[in-house]
Specification:
This protein is mainly alpha-helical and about 325 residues long. The chain folds into two domains: about 240 residues, no CATH class; about 60 residues, GMP Synthetase, Chain A, domain 3 (2-Layer Sandwich). It is about 65% helix and about 10% strand. It has a three-stranded mixed β-sheet with strand order 1-2-3, covered by helices on one side. A hairpin with a 5-residue loop joins strand 1 and strand 2. Helix 5 crosses helix 11, helix 8 runs antiparallel to helix 9 and helix 12 packs antiparallel against helix 13. The longest helix is centred in the C-terminal third of the chain and has 46 residues. The radius of gyration is 26 Å and the shape is elongated.
C-alpha cells in the first residue's frame, strides 16, 4: 500500500544520501537521550504555559509551545521504531514520559500557589479534544519529521506551535492542583496522548518514505507492521475523540437554537435579555435548560410552558426549561 506512495515521493523529491541519513540518525539519537537542559526547558515551558492559561493569554501559551522541547523525543522514538533500535526507542520514550510528568508536577505546584481561578478559554480548549486536534497533530508530525529529515530546522518552532504538547499537560496539572474534577484531567491527558500517537505515526511514515527504514536497517514487513500498529492505535484514540467532537457540536447546536427560540419569545418584552445559559442531561435523555434573564417583568409559569413547547418543537426532543430572572427597573431623569 505504501510502495506507490514512496515511488511518487522519490520521483518528485531528492532522496537522502547515506551521509545525510547518518546525520539525521545522529541528531535524533541525541534527542532520544534528554539532558539536564531538556528538563530545564520543559520546566520553564510549563511555568510559562501554566501562567499563560491562568491569565487566559494565548500569546504566552504560544510562547511556551516554542520553548518546550517535547516534540523531539517523539520524533526520535518514531525513527527508533522504523530502525528497530530498541535502546533508542526506550530511552526516547522514557525521556518523553519524564518530561510529561515534570510538566504536570510544575502545573500542580503553581496551582497551589495561585488557588483562586476561574475557568478560562485557554483552559477549556485543552479539555475537549476532537478529531480536528488529531488531524492537526498528524499534519504537524509529518511536517516535523520531514523538516528534520531534510535539515529544515528553521521550520521547527512553527511546527511546535501547531501541535499542543505542553498546554494539555499543564491543564491536567492545574485540574489536579485546583481539584476541578477528573473530567478536565482526563480530557487534557487524552489530547496529549492523541497528539503523541498521531505524531508517532506521521514520523514512521516520513522516515520510511525518505529511506531511513526498509532496505537500510530492517526488513519492510517489520516496518509495515509497526506502521499498521500505529494506525490501529490512532483509530482507537479517534473513537473517544469523535464522541467528544459530536457532543460538542450537539451542545453548540442546542445552545444556539435555544437562544434563537427564546429571543423570539421574549422579543415583545422591552429591556429583556439573556445573560447566561447552561444545561444538564436528565433522565430518559431529556435536556434541562437553565436560562438566566434580566427583565422588568417576572414571567408566569404558563409563559414558561409556552417556551418549553416552542423549544421541544424546534429541537425535536423533550426540553425542560428553568428561568432564573433578575428583575430590573429602568429609571430616567425628570
Amino acid at each position: 500500500m505504501l510502495g506507490p506512495l514512496q515511488e511518487l515521493i522519490n520521483r518528485h523529491f531528492e532522496p537522502l544520501s547515506d551521509g545525510e541519513k547518518g546525520e539525521v540518525v545522529e541528531s535524533l539519537r541525541k534527542g532520544a537521550y534528554p539532558s539536564n537542559d531538556f528538563y530545564l526547558m520543559v520546566t520553564l515551558a510549563a511555568v510559562i504555559a501554566t501562567l499563560g492559561i491562568f491569565t487566559d493569554n494565548s500569546v504566552v501559551v504560544i510562547g511556551a509551545m516554542v520553548v518546550a522541547p517535547l516534540m523531539l523525543p517523539v520524533i526520535s522514538f518514531s525513527l527508533a521504531g522504523v530502525r528497530g533500535d530498541l535502546a533508542m526507542f526506550n530511552r526516547s520514550l522514557m525521556g518523553e514520559a519524564k518530561g510529561a510528568v515534570l510538566a504536570v508536577v510544575v502545573a500542580i505546584i503553581i496551582s497551589y500557589i495561585i488557588p483562586n481561578y476561574e475557568l478560562t478559554t485557554e483552559f477549556l480548549l485543552r479539555t475537549k479534544p476532537t478529531l480536528l486536534d488529531l488531524g492537526i497533530a498528524f499534519a504537524s508530525g509529518l511536517a516535523g519529521a520531514y523538516a528534520i529529515a531534510k535539515r529544515m530546522d528553521y521550520t521547527l518552532p512553527g511546527i511546535a506551535v501547531s501541535v499542543a504538547l505542553i498546554p494539555p499537560l499543564c491543564v491536567a496539572g492545574m485540574s489536579i492542583g485546583l481539584r476541578l474534577g477528573i473530567e478536565y484531567t482526563l480530557g487534557a491527558l487524552l489530547l496529549f496522548v492523541a497528539n503523541i500517537i498521531a505524531i508517532n505515526l506521521a514520523g514512521y511514515l516520513v522516515f520510511w518514505i525518505v529511506g531511513l527504514g526498509p532496505g537500510w536497517y530492517m526488513d519492510e514487513q517489520e516496518t509495515r507492521k509497526k506502521i499498521y500498529n500505529s494506525v490501529a492505535l490512532m483509530l482507537l484514540v479517534a473513537i473517544p475523540l469523535g464522541w467528544i467532537m459530536w457532543t460538542t457540536f450537539e451542545e453548540k447546536y442546542l445552545m444556539s437554537e435555544t437562544r434563537d427560540v427564546l429571543e423570539g419569545q421574549l422579543s415583545g418584552i422591552p429591556n429583556t435579555k439573556i445573560t447566561g445559559m447552561s444545561y444538564v442531561l436528565g433522565e430518559g435523555g431529556a435536556w434541562k435548560m437553565v436560562v438566566e434573564l434580566e427583565s422588568p417583568l417576572v414571567l408566569t409559569s404558563e409563559r414558561v410552558e409556552e417556551m418549553e413547547f416552542a423549544l421541544t418543537e424546534r429541537l425535536h426532543r423533550e426540553i425542560s426549561l428553568e428561568l432564573k430572572i433578575t428583575k430590573i427597573e429602568s429609571v430616567t431623569s425628570s
